[in-house]
Please model this.
Amino acid sequence: MKPFDPSAAAQEGSGIYGLPHTEDDARVVVVPVPFDATTSYRRGAAGGPAAVLRASRQVDLYDREVGRPYEAGIYLQPEATLLAALNEDGRAAADPILAAGGAEDGNAEHQHLLTRVNGISEAVNKWVYDATARLLDKGKMAVILGGDHAVPFGAIQAYAERHPGLGVLHIDAHADLRDAYEGFTYSHASVMHNVATRIPAVGRLVQVGIRDFSEDEARFAEASGGRIQTFYDVDLARGRFEGEPFARQVERIVAALPQEVYVSFDIDGLDPAFCPHTGTPVPGGLHFHEASYLVGAVVRSGRRIVGVDLNEVAPGPDGDDWDGNVGARLLYKLIGWALLSGR
Model:
């Protein structure tokens, strides 16, 4: 077999980032979850894993910040046919509710459809939990690649069981603290509410980039007794306008985290210039380099990043690969920082 050349073009049939690894010899296994049935504005995140895979083969493998993550071995699993079927069924059941702006009280058909969607979401959660737990038991780093932001719930549960007191660094435009948004128990807008209420082993939720949220979500965070700490985007921006360095802000964010950290990254936490086709883009947010600096600061503090996920990457129409390109590079950074923290 021809020796692998990290500086060469990706070869036909190669895996993510053009790598030759198998699941057995890779330290990092990326699990694609092409599911976006509860997306409430515009769908497309189910195509995120495929878009990231396509774009990944153009990513140079040496990175000035994180070095050579590829040397640990990175493997992307094939997309599971079961998930594609669940997404198709979930979309069909969710569509009438989404068109109505949410489930209507007393509407028997809506209640029937809600039961169907919630059952499908539970099946996705179990699938993700089982896939993550199996990889963790084999000593792998399991990385979830969504799909909408509902999909990593099972992975966070599996990681938290193995790392009690785990901190979740949640980078997002949205707080995701709604209770059963539009009636969907496992909505993409409810994932962190579910983490906070259904995974007691998570010790702290630290949110960054949040700029689109309801008053109820703000109250829920405030009532958490410090378990949820939200660094609102407008407050961080105002601080920078008034002279506070971003590095100082990052120190405060990192100080709120426990020793072991899981990074849950919704790509709409970035400025929408980097993710224009994501499901719910919002003005503001982090620059790509600010996001990498923040995650890197967790590592530089001596904390350990035990796992990561990336969600809401959506390919653009007519083959626009910009979102996939950004997503592929962001995923590589996240994996690289996590590997560095484990040394």
Summary: The chain has one domain: 22-341. The first helix runs from residue 48 to 56.
